[in-house]
Structures are given as C-alpha cells and as structure tokens.
C-alpha cells in the first residue's frame, strides 16, 4: 500500500483529534465501498455471493431436510435416473435416486462451512506466524520462513490430497488438510507487510512515547498490514471450495453426502447413457461460487490499489 | 546481489528443501499407520508378524526407518506399489511418459492461445475482444477442471460421438513399437500417420481441459503487460516515425511484453501438474495422476510417497529455473535503463 496515513490514535490526542481521525477512517471506508460498487463485475460477484449464502442459510426451507442427517442425500428409489423437470425432482435424479436439486441446495452449506473454516483458520495461523517472523526477525524469522519454504515446495492440491489420503476419506479431514496446506500464503504476505509497516515513523513515535509492544502491534502495525490478507482471503473463499470439491471428486469425502464435488463424481457414471444433469448442475454451482469470489477479490484489489485498475 | 550469488544461494538451499519435503512425506505417511499391512495375512502368528517387522526394519525407531527409506531412494528403491502390483520404479517411467505427453500438449495449447488472446485483447483495450478475454481469464481461474472435462465429454463424446476416451485405439497402439512411451513421438518414429492421428485425436479434449486454466493465466498476464508497454514512450516514437501499427505491436510492444509472460508460463507448470490428476481420471488417461488417485483410495503408500516427492522436486526445479530466468531478464532491464 502506498498510503502512509496513520489512523490509530495516541493517548495525548484530544477528543477532537480522535473524532476527526474517525471521520477520516469512515470517509476512507465509504470511498472504498463506492469504488467497489462502481465496478459492475464486482457487483455481479457480490450478488452471486449473497444469493449463495442466502441459499445456504435458508436451505431447510428450500429443500426439506433429509432425516436424520440433512447432509446425506435423500434416496427416492421410486424415481431413479429421472431427467430434469420430473415432478418432485426439478433437476432430475442420480443413479441411486438422489435428488439433484437437494444436493445443489444443501451443497451450498457444505461449501460455506468448508470455506469459512479453512479461510478462518488459515488467516489466523498465517497472520500470527507471519507477524512473529516479521516482528522478531533473526533466527525466529529464519526458522519460520524455511518451514514456509518447505510447505510451499509441495504443490497445493497434491499436498492436501496426501494429507487427506493419510487421514482417511471424510469431509472433516478435507477441512483439516486444506488448513494445514494453505496457511503459508498468509504467513508470507503478513511477514512482508509487517516488515514494511514497522519501518514507518509512527511506529517509532509510538515506541518513543512508551507504548507497549503488544499495543504497538495491535494498534499500529496490524491494522496497517492486514489489507493484502483480506484480498487473498476473499480469493481463497472461492479457491478453497474449488480445491475441496476436487478432493471430494477424487473420492476423499464420504460417499453419498450432499457435496458438489461428490455429486459431480457420482454423476460422471451416467454421461455415457445421456444422463448429463447429475454432474452438470452441482459443477455449475462450484463454478459460480469460485467465480463470484474471484470477481469480488479482484474488485477489492483494484479498489484498494487504484493503480492496478483496468489492468 | 550478483546474479551468480543469487543462483548459488538458490542451488545450495535446494537440497535442504528437498530434505524438508522428504521428512514431511515420511512423517505424513507414518501418521496414517505402519506400512506393514500390505505384507500381512490373516493366518500369520504374532511371531511371524514380528519376523516381518524385523525384516523391513519396522521395529526400529521412526528416525531410523526414515534413514532406511531415504537410503532406499538413493539406491533407486522406491518400494512396492500395491495398486500396480509391481515395484514403483518398474511402472513409473511409462506413467510419467503418458502424463508428460498430456502436460506438454496442454502447455503448448495454453502458451499459443494465451499469448494470442492476450495480445489481441491488450491491443484493443476496453473494447469487446478485451471484455471477452477478461471473461475467459476470470472463468479460467474459477472453472473446476473435472467439471469442464465432463462437460466436454457430454458434448463431444456422449452426444456427438466425435471424440474418443482413453489414450489410444488398442489395435493401432499395438501396431507400432513404443520406445519413448510418448505416443505422438513413437508414431512419428514409426512413420505411421494413422497412429499419429490416433494419438492427436485422443489428446485434444484432455489437453484442452487441462490447458484452459493455464491459458487464462497466460492471457491475463500477456494482456496487462502489453497494455503497460503500449503506454511507453518508445511505442510513441515508433509510431511517430511512421511504422505501421501492426509492426509497432508485433516487433516492439509484444516482444517486450513477453518478458513477464515467460515467467508466468513457468509458473503455470505446477498448475498443469496438479491438474493431471482429475483430467486423467475423467479421460481414463493411464498416467501418474490417475495412478496417484487410485493409490490414495487404496492406501498404496509407496506410490503416494514417490509421487509427492517426485512432483515436489520437479516443482522446485522448475521454479528455480523460472526465478533464474526472471532474475536474468530483470537484470538486463535495469542495466538497459
């Protein structure tokens, strides 16, 4: 970031100064929102994200939950391999009578869980480790960054695949595997940001007036370093679902759950006999999900750094 | 830093990274349990089990086992693949050839399409072709490869009957010898036109599926660096002296815009390597990726370890080469200024 404006406040600052700093912060935030919504593709992405989250939240009202486990696909043995448009099965059914519509709706919950859990845990772990490396420097930095280098040496998907394989096929293990693999990106970004931010004069100023190290970190360094992490996190909300669905497709989730990757995999068997629907709809959801977060992530990056706009 | 020092530093650090990866791979597979399972049967007595444990050094501490494993790797012993029912080293070369053929074909598709699309869009900034290319670029990063492949199969294989599945037509495959294992090359060596067409015909859809994502990455980079180059003074100078726009674009701007694009092309390698897993499953391509997927589901540890180690080393080497090329090009740029 090029901005060197220092938003946090020092104890000596008057109430008036505090207020005006708040106003500046608010203005900056409104400006960001304005730039975001002025980009039509970002708005499109946001609209898709809002609808997806809406589907996930209201799933029980859109498709009646299966008993006892709503994440298990319901089986209608009286309606096997039915095409889209069949009464009661608007998007058709799978080889074993699973309702494709049900999978599409409830799969959004699985994706939301997956992306929130993985992005949440990796952002926290990566931010902590990256901050430690950037703040402490020396041998701590050296050791942590060599570990990061080793983690980055194994291609993401292959690493996650190996971890999930060792732990056994389950959705929870996919969440765990992706968390183990993906924190390193954030650690790298955060370390670079912290090293840059801590050289600013306002950090020296805070140190001179005797702020505690933790205070300096929380009020001066962290807020001024976190921006690129938010962009990466937005992009990862989509990527995580893409990689997670790939692992499910390969067969590392429980069979028969309402998850988009599993459904695409199960639908694959039918395409030779012309049953295109069982793979197509769940796959389309994965695509839209990833696309929406990519569009918003790109929009966010442009809005935060106007230099890259239109590139 | 001098370029030579930079390269030296990177080369020195490489074995350390490989050591780190090998430790991760080993520890990881041990978390999943002892590999003794594949040697056991129900009739064995505890004594016999202990004998087998001792024979494969599984009664030793874990770090000693790691050293035995690493020593085996150095001696070319990668273990026994339960899925292939053969030593890993026996099966590996053929699978690797199949995967490389697919990855290289996809890479060629991606480089050609990516650079053309990127140039076309960059020269027509904010007009229709540019927007169309942006859609390709953004969708390429979001498209689940396995789903895209299945869509292609639904259209071209299941409905139109135009495209085949698998790697070859069995009768044509057996009509020529396969010294390299790379089908297209073998066909050329054998001078068989029908075999060559058969190879290409089987390659098209999987290469397109795998290459689409990489095309998007390359097109995007090409476009943005061309847009940047077109704003430089030397472009105005070239135009001012009366050169045709086509020449300005091709000989001047595009040539310079290729510099950052070349490094991105190197980075898409990891993308292609990972993508082979699902693409090989969908198109029943007998390569490393499908072998890995089978091994994962059937607990074939030796194959899993070899695959992760091999792809990581390859990935590291490619990244090293890319970084060195970039540092070299970058140095020339700064020296030129």
Question: Which labels suit this protein?
Answer:
heterodimer; A: 311 residues; mainly alpha; 70% helix; B: mainly alpha; two-stranded antiparallel ribbon; disordered C terminus
What is this entry, summarized?
The complex is a heterodimer of chains A (311) and B (337). Chain A is mainly α and 311 residues long.
How would you explain this protein's 3D organization?
The complex is a heterodimer of chains A (311) and B (337). Chain A has 311 residues and is an all-alpha fold. Chain A is 70% helix and 0% strand. Chain A has twelve helices and no strands. Chain A is elongated, with a radius of gyration of 23 Å. The two termini of chain A are 17 Å apart. Chain B is an all-alpha fold. Chain B contains 13 helices and two strands; from the N terminus they run αααββαααααααααα. Chain B has helices at residues 3-31, 46-55, 62-74, 88-122, 128-142, 145-159, 170-175, 183-190, 193-230, 233-240, 245-282, 288-297, 301-336, and strands at residues 80-81, 86-87. In chain B, strands 1-2 form a two-stranded antiparallel sheet. Chain B starts with a helix and ends with a helix. The model of chain B is unreliable at 333-337 (pLDDT under 50). Chains A and B meet through helix 5, helix 6, helix 10, helix 11 and helix 12 of A and helix 1, helix 5, helix 6, helix 9 and helix 11 of B.
Quaternary structure state of the chains depicted: heterodimer
Low-confidence runs of chain A: none
Element pattern of chain A in H and E:
HHHHHHHHHHHH
Shape of chain A: elongated
DSSP strand (E) fraction of chain B?
A: under 5%
Question: What is the tally of helical segments of chain B?
Answer: 13
- Using only CA atoms, what is the Rg of chain A? 23 Å
Please state the CA-atom Rg of chain B, rounded to the nearest Å. 25 Å
Number of helices of chain A: 12
Briefly note the structural class of the backbone of chain B: mainly alpha
Query: How would you state the average pLDDT of chain A, rounded?
Result: 88
Question: What is the straight-line distance between the termini of chain A?
Answer: 17 Å
């Amino acid at each position: 970031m090029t901005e060197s404006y220092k938003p946090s406040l020092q104890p000596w600052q008057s109430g008036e100064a505090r207020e005006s700093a708040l106003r500046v912060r608010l203005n900056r935030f409104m400006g960001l929102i304005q730039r975001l919504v002025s980009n039509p593709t970002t708005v499109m992405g946001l609209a898709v994200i809002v609808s997806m989250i809406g589907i996930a939240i209201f799933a029980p009202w859109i498709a009646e939950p299966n008993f006892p486990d709503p994440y298990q696909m319901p089986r209608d043995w009286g309606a096997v391999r039915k095409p889209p448009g069949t009464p009661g099965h608007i998007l058709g059914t799978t080889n074993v009578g699973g309702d494709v519509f049900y999978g599409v709706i409830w799969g959004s919950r699985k994706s939301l869980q997956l992306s929130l859990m993985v992005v949440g845990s990796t952002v926290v772990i990566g931010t902590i480790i990256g901050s430690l490396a950037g703040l402490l420097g020396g041998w701590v930095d050296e050791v942590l960054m060599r570990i990061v280098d080793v983690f980055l040496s194994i291609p993401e998907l292959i690493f996650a695949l190996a971890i999930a394989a060792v732990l056994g096929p389950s959705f929870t293990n996919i969440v765990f595997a992706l968390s183990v693999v993906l924190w390193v990106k954030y650690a790298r970004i955060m370390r670079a940001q912290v090293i840059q931010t801590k050289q600013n004069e306002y950090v020296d100023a805070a140190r001179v007036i005797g702020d505690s190290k933790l205070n300096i970190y929380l009020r001066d360094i962290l807020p001024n370093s976190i921006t690129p992490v938010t962009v990466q996190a937005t992009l990862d909300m989509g990527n995580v679902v893409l990689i997670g669905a790939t692992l499910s497709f390969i067969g590392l989730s429980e069979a028969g759950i309402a998850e988009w990757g599993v459904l695409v995999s199960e639908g694959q068997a039918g395409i030779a006999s012309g049953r295109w629907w069982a793979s197509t709809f769940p796959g389309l959801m994965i695509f839209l999900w990833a696309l929406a977060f990519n569009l918003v992530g790109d929009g966010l990056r442009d809005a935060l750094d106007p230099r890259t706009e239109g590139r | 830093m001098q370029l030579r020092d930079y390269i030296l530093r990177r080369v020195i650090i490489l074995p350390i990274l490989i050591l780190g990866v090998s430790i991760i791979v080993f520890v990881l597979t041990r978390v999943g349990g002892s590999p003794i399972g594949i040697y056991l049967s129900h009739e064995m007595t505890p004594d016999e089990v202990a004998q087998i444990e001792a024979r494969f050094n599984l009664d030793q501490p874990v770090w000693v086992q790691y050293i035995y494993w690493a020593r085996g790797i150095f001696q070319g012993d990668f273990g026994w693949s339960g899925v292939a029912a053969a030593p890993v080293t026996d099966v590996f070369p053929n699978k690797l050839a199949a995967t490389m053929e697919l990855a290289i074909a996809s890479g060629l598709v991606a480089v050609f399409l990516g650079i053309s699309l990127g140039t076309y869009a960059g020269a027509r900034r904010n007009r229709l072709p540019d927007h169309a290319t942006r859609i390709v670029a953004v969708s390429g990063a979001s498209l689940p490869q396995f789903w895209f492949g299945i869509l292609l199969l639904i259209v071209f294989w299941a409905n139109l009957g135009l495209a085949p599945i698998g790697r070859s037509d069995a009768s044509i495959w057996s009509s020529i010898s396969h010294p390299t294992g790379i089908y297209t090359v073998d066909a050329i060596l054998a001078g068989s036109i029908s075999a060559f067409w058969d190879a290409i015909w089987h390659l098209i859809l999987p290469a397109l599926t795998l290459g689409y994502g990489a095309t998007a990455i390359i097109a995007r980079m090409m476009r943005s660096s061309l847009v940047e180059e077109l704003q430089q003074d030397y472009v105005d100078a070239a135009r001012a002296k009366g050169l045709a726009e086509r020449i300005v674009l091709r000989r001047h701007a595009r040539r310079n815009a290729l510099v950052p694009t070349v490094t991105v092309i190197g980075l898409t390698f990891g993308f292609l390597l990972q993508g082979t897993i699902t693409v090989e499953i969908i198109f029943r391509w007998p390569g490393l990726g499908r072998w890995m997927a089978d091994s994962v589901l059937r607990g074939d540890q030796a194959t899993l370890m070899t695959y992760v180690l091999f792809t990581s080393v390859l990935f590291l080497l490619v990244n090293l080469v890319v970084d060195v090329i970039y540092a070299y090009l970058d140095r020339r740029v700064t020296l030129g200024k």
